[in-house]
From TrEMBL:
Residues 229-287 are annotated as: Disordered. GO terms for cellular component: Ski complex. This is Helicase SKI2W. Residues 277-287 have a biased composition (Basic and acidic residues). It holds the Pfam family DSHCT. One of its GO terms (biological process) is nuclear-transcribed mRNA catabolic process, 3'-5' exonucleolytic nonsense-mediated decay. Residues 327-483 form the Helicase ATP-binding domain. Coiled coil: none annotated.
């Protein structure tokens, strides 16, 4: 080829210019001429390119068509119009729809500077790592952000960010590990011995010869391979000897790589063993350290203001000690668990974390278990911090805020869907953590805690729980970071607990103190209450005859008790009062019955009236006239309120706000009010101490009682809080009261269970495994895998150092002999336990019975029972046993018997020298057999004589007549039957007929017969070899046990996991290899009842229905109560209900077939259709007042169901889009619009 001469480059040909990118010292090469009048291309001036942004279409259109004079000339409009038409009729360019993002650059320019002067010397090209990472293929925080539309909630095709503590499972590491394994296998598995030849080749030896330059002798290398040593000729060995003196001893190994022989001379570094030893010591320290660190809150914190001169948040009051300790830990960016009573001031910790994150320009997420609580916290934090957002199922306010308040379920979905919010997250605050005990929703807390990435610190706020340390230890071990536990039992306002027995004006002062402010239980008060009650009942009995007092009181009796008590309390200025009543109807009845009571002044009445009117002004006219609203308005004016789930949400909020202002004097509430925000009262009254928990009636648990009683006493207003328990029928049992008031609160227990959503969400990400989630759950927190793995490596080392077993020739059946002996020992022990536990066995073990004793001191020695203890749990048998002279007392060294322990020996013990005796208390496991013989003995004499001769001065006395006779008899028996005395047969003599015993006896017989046939017993080295086998097997068995515990096989939920996987495969949610299919992707979108909804979607059940009908049908997924009213519904809806039940039945049956415990009936019965008519009419526009008449379900419950139904409709709409069914999607949107109106979707008062 001839050479082409190019002209020299002109200035305009290829202007190369360098542009510094960001401040990291990287450069970018620009190859196009830079326009003089335009700014630089934005991509070039930021270190990582532009942040994601979306072009505003409207602005683009305006710019292109309306503000461009070329498009819209002032005069020639016709031509412009023609031009416009031409544009609209342009040809289609399908390629323009295909967007191909430019591939990311894989390298950048870096600058080389002179280290002393900093002068530019050169540019080098450096490869950039992780350029192809995105939310669809990586768990790393290095990945590029997704589109803005997905930044908040994420997308269900995104990977989550890598959860903390799961680092060992990244894909790269998995791949690396397997490649290494392959390499090692490849090296080890080289065939070096051709078939038929005696010696083979060793490839590695040659290589070692050439690489080692005389410093490591070849023979020292070969000495690590036994097979070659055998083949090496003697001469070479002799030659090699002198050299080995100087060479370091190489560790024994199977691979040359492990010997650390590199090309070039061997360095004279210290042997690697010492380094490893140091590492091990360090590892031991690391293992012994605890992750949960209790903080001592008694030590004063004097230097608090020195350590934090510029706090992120200042309070108008002095902090308590525990709050200061928590703030110090937050400043150090540590995770904390704060357990304190209600109103002790846990919110201070949360507030400081929010202030810190605002200072650091990061974000905080505050999660709460209940939506109402989220709304209240939103209002509180909004007034304090301003920049606060709220995310609940139906509301989204200010999602860009630095502090986001949400329910735990939403945080879980954000974590699974890889939301961008997680990147900026510094703190997650879990309020009311003891909610993890909730059977239905507790699992969500555990999932969130497991899924949180490493950079997020955790703050847990909880009521006092006994096992806060254990719980924190679990989180710490899982997240590999310390959790500081700060728990205080101090109450800012101490409580006094009373019993109240009054029920009329005459008895209204009958209030008896039961627990004083110091926490002492006063029995005097209890008995005084009992006497007061008794006196009244006896008087009643004299005048009216005895009536059998029932547990329940009539409404009239209730009314008189409440009127009496409330008059009494308002006279003593003990209002506001929260009256906890564990039934919604009871709450309503009690409030209605107090119509005569008026607890508010005229100014308070006008304040209540104006606040009530203002709050309800946003409701439509018809809704303001709802019976519940009118009733509540009248009650509130008298200072009486009702708070339970049946009250309309907006009314509930009005009542809460009036109560916190002190305008509601008496509030009848159910337990949920105690879960809520800090709304303390002066007094708390318990209507009853029994509640129905969904399965039956039971007493309140200490935790529940403390939580509710803790509402009494307002900080800074009351010296003490008053708690009153009403004794309406009789005084409660003192034991019950003591347990409830002073008992330990409920421990935090894991409610972890597998859900299909969790399984599918984890299956779609290869690097996360469901078994890891199960292993990290609180229910498996007892597994200390690290310690177990460490022990396994120790055992492996022990195994390798044990001497080898000889199983040649005569000893070839040694192993099977060991297994037979072991099985025989286990079978005999099991039989012996069965005999000892049986009635007939204990009958046989009476005084005078001869038994065979075998324990650490005696082997097959005969003894006679003298006394049997009455203790059924640890029963002991005082027995006289024959033994060698001089071996009467336990000396500490174990069996010095003639027969070795491994031989199954039934030969009875006979003393070689003179016969002696000892009296010992035996456990049931020491008695090897119960013989058919019995002796006549005088136990008292024997025991007295023996114990007398144990004293030093009588030690040399001869034994008494009774002992001598018994000893002689036993000796005679032993000598007459050297091969064993006949013992009771468990089946024939003792009549134990259970299958296990009968099988055991037969197995024992077969195994005993087997023992005779073994050859190894006759070997001269048998004892020594058997001891070796025993030792090796002991280590092996312990190792196998640990290997099982470390493996997934020992997970308690593993069988259920396989069953659920089987269900998912059968229904084609995942394929055989576990890859998530379309159905599975749809199910990931849905938060509850995902299986049923997905099946309904794919079976097209919802398509033929009108929007309002589909909304009505889907209400069955949310509504959980029983109703007495049968709904009147259209035929298509009835058909739909049949289909839903049919699909549910199908899923239930399939689950049963796959082995899941829940029965098909239970699965089907969880879908209740009581609200179908209500929802149908609501979606068709019927006013709420008329709807309330259609059902016996309370208004508040209806509203909550319709609100949650809206969330389900949104999920179905998303799912329909994934499937590609746009018709169904738009139908769901219409249904959603139809139900989102009026009182049901009135915005919360807290968020406005």
């Amino acid at each position: 080829m001839e050479r082409i001469e190019l002209p020299p480059l002109g200035p305009a040909d290829l202007p190369l210019s360098l542009l510094e990118v960001g401040c990291s010292g990287k450069f970018e090469l620009l190859t196009r001429p830079l326009p003089s009048h335009q700014p630089l291309h934005p991509l070039t001036t930021l270190p990582h390119g532009l942040p994601p942004f979306s072009v505003d279409l409207q602005a683009e259109v305006e710019k292109r068509f309306l503000s461009d004079p070329a498009w819209l000339p002032i005069h020639d409009t016709d031509a412009a119009f023609q031009k416009f038409l031409k544009l609209t009729k342009r040809g289609k360019h399908l390629d323009s729809l295909l967007q191909c993002p430019p591939t990311p650059l894989h390298s950048g320019l870096s600058v080389v500077r002179d280290p002393t002067t900093g002068m530019l010397l050169d540019f080098t090209e450096v490869p950039l790592e992780n350029t192809g990472l995105c939310a669809k293929n990586s768990l790393s925080l290095q990945r590029a952000p997704g589109p803005p539309s997905e930044s908040l909630r994420g997308s269900n095709t995104n990977y989550p960010f890598m959860p903390a503590g799961m680092e060992e499972l990244t894909l790269e590491q998995i791949n690396k590990k397997s490649e290494l394994e392959e390499n090692i296998d490849f090296e080890n598995d080289l065939l070096i011995m051709p078939p038929g030849l005696k010696t083979g080749m060793d490839f590695s030896a040659k290589e070692a010869k050439t690489t080692t330059k005389g410093e490591v002798n070849l023979m020292t290398l070969l000495s690590t391979f036994d097979d070659i040593m055998d083949d090496a000729p003697d001469g070479e060995e002799k030659e090699g000897k002198p050299a080995t003196v100087e060479t370091p001893k190489l560790p024994r190994t199977n691979s040359l790589e492990d010997l650390g022989i590199k090309e070039g001379p061997v360095s004279s570094s210290p042997p690697p063993a010492t380094a490893a030893g140091k590492k091990e010591v360090k590892g031991e320290e690391e293992d012994t350290k605890k992750w949960a660190v209790p903080v001592d809150i008694t030590s004063p914190c004097e230097d608090f203001y020195k350590r934090i001169p510029d706090p992120a948040f200042k309070w108008p009051f002095e902090l308590d000690l525990f709050q200061k300790q928590a703030v110090l830990k937050l400043e150090a960016h540590d995770s904390v668990f704060v357990a304190a009573h209600t109103s002790a001031g846990k919110t201070v910790v949360a507030e400081y974390a929010i202030a810190l994150s605002q200072k650091h320009m990061t974000r905080t997420i505050y999660t709460s278990p209940i939506k109402a609580l989220s709304n209240q916290k939103f209002r509180d934090f909004k007034t304090t911090f301003g920049d606060v957002g709220l995310l609940t199922g139906d509301v989204q306010i200010n999602p860009e805020a630095s502090c986001l308040i949400m329910t735990t379920e939403i945080l879980r979905s954000m974590l699974y869907n890889g939301s961008e919010v997680i990147r900026d997250l510094e703190w997650v605050i879990f309020d009311e953590v003891h909610y993890i005990n909730d059977a239905e929703r507790g699992v969500v807390w555990e999932e969130v805690l497991i899924m949180l990435p490493e950079h997020v610190s955790i703050i847990l706020l909880s009521a006092t729980v006994p096992n806060a340390l254990e719980f924190s230890e679990w989180i710490g071990r899982m997240k590999k970071r310390h959790i500081y536990v700060i728990s205080t039992l101090k109450r800012p306002v101490p409580l006094e607990h009373y019993l109240y027995t009054g029920n009329s004006t005459k008895t209204q002062k009958e209030l008896f103190l039961l627990i004083d402010a110091a926490g002492n239980f006063l029995t005097k008060g209890y008995y005084a209450a009992v006497d007061a009650k008794k006196e009244r009942t006896s008087k009643h009995a004299q005048s009216f005859g005895t009536k059998n007092t029932s547990q329940n009181t009539t409404p009239n009796q209730d009314k008189s008790v409440w009127l009496t008590l409330l008059n009494f309390l308002s006279q003593r200025q003990q209002t506001p009062v929260v009256a906890f009543t564990f039934s919604r109807t009871r709450c309503d009845e009690n409030a209605r019955s107090l119509g005569t009571l008026d607890l508010t002044s005229a100014t308070e009445k006008s304040e209540i009236h104006s606040f009530f009117q203002k709050s309800l002004s946003r409701l439509r006219g018809g809704d303001r006239q709802l019976p519940q609203i009118l009733l509540m308005r009248d009650l509130l004016k008298k200072g009486i309120g009702v708070h339970h789930s049946g009250i309309l949400p907006i009314l509930k909020e009005v009542i809460e706000m009036l109560f916190s202002r002190g305008l509601v004097k008496v509030l009848f509430a159910t337990e949920t009010f105690a879960m809520g925000v800090n709304m303390p009262a002066r007094t708390v009254v318990f209507d009853s101490i029994r509640k129905h928990d969904g399965t039956g009636f039971r007493n309140l648990l200490p935790g529940e009682y403390i939580q509710m009683a803790g509402r009494a006493g307002r900080r800074g207003l009351d010296a003490t809080g008053t708690v009153i328990i009403l004794c309406k029928t009789g005084v409660h049992d003192m034991g019950d009261l003591h347990v409830m008031m002073l008992g330990k609160p409920t421990v935090l227990q894991s409610q972890f269970r597998l859900t299909y959503t969790m399984i599918l969400n984890l299956l779609r990400v290869e690097a996360l495994r469901v078994t890891d989630m199960m292993r990290r759950s609180f229910s498996e927190s007892h597994r200390d895998t690290q310690a177990q793995e460490k022990r396994i490596t120790q055992l492996k080392e022990t195994l390798s150092t044990l001497p080898p077993m000889d199983v040649e020739g005569q000893l070839s059946d040694l192993l099977s002999y060991y297994h037979t002996i072991t099985e025989l020992r286990i079978t005999s022990q099991a039989l012996q336990e069965a005999v000892m536990d049986s009635v007939s066995g204990l009958k046989a073990l009476s005084v005078g019975r001869v038994v065979v004793v075998s324990n650490s001191l005696h082997l097959n020695a005969l003894g006679v029972i003298l006394q049997v203890s009455n203790d059924a749990v640890n029963r002991t048998f005082t027995t006289l046993i024959i033994c060698e002279k001089g071996n009467e007392e336990p000396t500490g060294d174990t069996m010095n018997t003639s027969a070795p322990p491994h031989l199954y020996n039934t030969a009875l013990f006979t003393p070689e020298g003179p016969c002696s005796h000892t009296v010992q208390k035996l456990k049931s496991q020491d008695i090897l057999g119960i013989t058919v013989k019995a002796l006549k003995v005088i136990p008292e004499r024997i025991i007295d004589n023996y114990s007398k001769r144990q004293q030093p001065r009588f030690r040399m006395d001869p034994p008494g007549q009774a002992i001598s006779t018994a000893t002689q008899e036993l000796l005679r028996l032993a000598e007459a039957n050297p091969n064993g005395v006949a013992t009771f047969d468990p089946v024939n003599d003792l009549h134990l007929k259970s299958v296990e015993v009968v099988e055991g006896v037969m197995r024992q017989r077969v195994l005993r017969d087997c023992l005779k046939d073994f050859k190894c017993i006759h070997s001269p080295t048998f004892s020594e070899q058997f001891a070796r086998v025993q030792e090796r097997m002991r280590v092996q068995e312990e190792m196998d046990k640990l290997l099982f515990l470390v493996s997934d096989q020992s997970l308690s939920l593993l069988p259920e996991y396989h069953q659920r996987i089987k269900v998912l495969q059968t229904l084609q949610y995942i394929d055989a290899s576990g890859a998530v299919q379309l159905k599975g992707r749809v199910a990931c979108q849905i938060s509850s009842h995902e299986m049923l909804l997905t099946e309904l979607l794919f079976e097209n059940t919802l398509s033929p229905l009108a929007p309002e009908e589909s909304a009505a049908l889907l209400s069955c997924l949310i509504f959980t109560q029983k109703t007495q009213v049968d709904p009147h519904i259209t035929n298509t809806l009835q058909e739909g209900i049949k289909q839903v039940l049919c699909v549910a039945q199908k899923i239930g049956d399939l689950q049963r077939e796959c082995g899941i415990a829940q029965s098909a009936e239970d699965f089907v019965s969880q879908f209740k259709f009581g609200l179908t008519e209500v929802v149908y009419c609501w979606a068709r526009g019927m006013p709420f007042a008329e709807i309330a008449q259609l059902t016996d379900v309370q208004e508040g419950t209806v509203v909550r169901c319709i609100q949650r139904l809206d969330e389900v409709l949104k999920e179905v709409r998303q799912a329909a889009r994934i499937v590609g069914d746009s018709v169904l999607g738009s139908k769901m949107e219409r249904a959603s619009l139809a139900i989102r109106r009026d009182i049901v979707f009135t915005a919360s008062l807290y968020t406005h």
